[in-house]
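Treating backbone geometry as a discrete language has practical consequences that deserve illustration. The amino acid sequence and the backbone structure tokens for this protein are reproduced below.
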Amino acid sequence: MATLRSGPIPVPSTTCSGDPVNTVMVTLTNQTTQTLQAVLKINEVTLNPQPLPPETSPIRVLMAPQRVTLRPNEARSFAVPVAPAQPPESLAVNAATAGSSGIIVTVRGDVGANGRRILASVSGGFAAPGEALTSSEPSMAVTHDQFVVVRRG
């Protein structure tokens, strides 16, 4: 079983169209003829504004590890709410103020960097209640080949 992970994906306060960023979406795709499995986990970390001395930032679980089974030629998307980041002009740069957040996506199981098993991708943006992304933010897009192999299977 391999493990792939994104780096911290910065979550801006708004999309390029001005809507607040409130959702991260992870899509897992199986384009094989076999049933494949993976475990998906999504974490959030605070990205402190600079110039601050280096501090540790706790990692918060946004989506606990969830087992996913994908039948042949099936895709599933997981939309997870994120707290909107504070606009930069409202941040006082000091240790008492949290910065923006970053999302870390981990996929473990029938995945690989070569793309021959489950493919993972990430997007984010604004989603109205009960809807998919209505306004996406291009800076949050992460394609399968941008994930880092943490462990080969």
In short: The chain has one domain: 2-145. Strands lie at 2-5, 9-11, 23-30, 36-47, 59-70, 74-81, 100-109, 118-126, 135-136, 148-151.
